[in-house]
Amino acid sequence: MTIDFRNPDQALRGADAAVPALAPHQRFILLVLGLCGAGLCMAGLWLLLRPVPWLAPEVAPLLGLAFLLSSVGDVVAAFFLRWIWRRAANRYS
After folding, report:
1. What digits encode the pLDDT tens for the residues 12-57?
2. What is the DSSP annotation of the chain?
3. Residue 46 near residue 9 (C-beta atoms within 8 A)
4. Rounded distance, CA 3 to CA 49, Å?
């Protein structure tokens, strides 16, 4: 059997080793970030598409855009954390 020493982690784990799963608390954090992102996205779209009587007409589009940008930030943070945590799990497994 030949070993590729350019990637020693793969040689130590084996070629068919599974990617380590995330811990339950990490999955929970990713779930919460995803749900918050979805909620902020729906709130942003609602404020952009439906006029609300209790909010000034010039404020609603800005608030909707802020909610949409926050939802994008949540999704980006979730993907970044998942990438960091999986990379760390691969390194220490």
Report:
1. 666 555 666 889 999 999 999 999 999 999 999 999 999 889 999 9
2. ----TTSHHHHHH-TTPPPPPPPHHHHHHHHHHHHHHHHHHHHHHHHHHS--TTS-TTTHHHHHHHHHHHHHHHHHHHHHHHHHHHHHHHHH-
3. no
4. 59
Q: Which residues of 68-83 are buried (b: 16+ CB within 10 A; e: fewer)?
A: bebbeebbeebeeebe
> How far out from the chain centre does Cα 57 lie?
32
**Per-residue pLDDT band at 91 (split at 50, 70, 90):** confident
